[in-house]
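Changelog note: in this version the structure field was regenerated for every chain. One regenerated record is shown below for reference.
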Amino acid sequence: MTTAAPLISSTQLSVNVTTRSQEQSLYQSSGAIVAAIVVGVIIIFTVVLLILKAYNRHMRGKRELEPKSSKTAVPPPLGQNSSSVTQHSTVTFIPIHMQSR
């Protein structure tokens, strides 16, 4: 019993090798494109971070150089009653029980 070896022509073999090398180059180029996109995104985030950091330093320096406004209340003159200047209102909530019918 003899088995016949399949005959593969040299043109079929070269087409197969060419197809594999094209696929491999496509995979490599797509990997390179993905890597370039990732590096680009990292660079953009770094630039935005540095811009925000510089802006924060600028605004902090500007805030520290500004004169501080006094937000304390001006005391009333001595001749007036302090209760007439500041009136405190109180609200009392009384619970109401509703009867169900």
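Spot check on this record: The two ends are 103 Å apart (CA to CA). DSSP finds two helices and no strands in the chain.
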